Amino acid sequence: MSFLNNYAYYIGAFGLIFIGLYIILVKHNLIKVIVGLGILDTGVNLFLISVGYITKGTAPIFSRPGIYSERMVDPVPQALVLTAIVIGVAVLALALSLAIRLYQHYGTLNLRKIREQKW
Amino acid sequence: MRRIISILLLVIVTFGISLSLAKIPFGVPKTKVGKRYISEGVKETGATNIVTSVVVNYRAFDTLGEVTVLFIAAIGLGVVLSTSRKKAMREVTPASLILSTGCRVLFPLILVFGTYIFIHGHLTPGGGFQGGAIIASAYLLIYLGCRERRINAKVSMSLESLGGLLFVVVGLIGLAIDGYFLTNFLPKGTPNLLFSAGVIPIIYIAIGFKVGSELTGIIDNLIEES
Prior knowledge:
The complex is a heterodimer of chains A (119) and B (226). Chain A has 119 residues and is mainly alpha-helical.
């Protein structure tokens, strides 16, 4: 049980990464692949945040004077995840625009059918 | 068959990663640099939000790169979606009265909230990226509620460029004054006040304008095309 207590966030994060990779590898619909990409992104972010977590920690913000700093979580992974979220949004938007173009060109979003067609 | 192979592959990969992952302890402090930022961050940067001081002061050059990535993605999206042929005006079903009135009431409030988030980025949770995303959500609401309305692309583009330019110019002034790109050259002030932390609020306001107009442009492009 202590194993679950200790590693619940890691397990959750890797569950999300597992699901995302599975969708990317198996599904044929491009929209579903992009959704899988989003889930994978979320899993990686959750993993980074949980690496930086400190038990019973607070946010690293000195919102009022006299707050003490021993139990603050690590700010570096949070800053990295802030970057990663923004890049994730950019990747999703670009992928969706490519999906729109593919659909207009081929009339389908099924990757297997797109591969069979001629250019 | 393909499904079974990919599940097997994933199980092997996940097992390998989790073996190494089990060595990482959970819930204890790990990095020295994080401790250093927490103990010295307020003194060195004047910002009480340590994440902000990492993003905009200690690692500001990374943030410049990140903003550039977002910019390139927005440009790429515009290029991919731009069509040479003129699109026919599609007819839109107008939104219901409740939705359009609600949008008009909520739109300025959401704008004010987003602006608050990125102006107070060095004091409270939030910052330029979050505030920009909130502002873009206000414009998304406008697209849902008042469907015939469009943003002025020129204003949005120039806000975006001005934001990026302000970021670089602040960095260059720091280079000219103190010899380092993106140095915090303004006085730090008292922590927990709005006018403190030197250049951090200026940079975050620039980022807020830039991210807000970029995400609004992305939404606009995607809606035009659908």
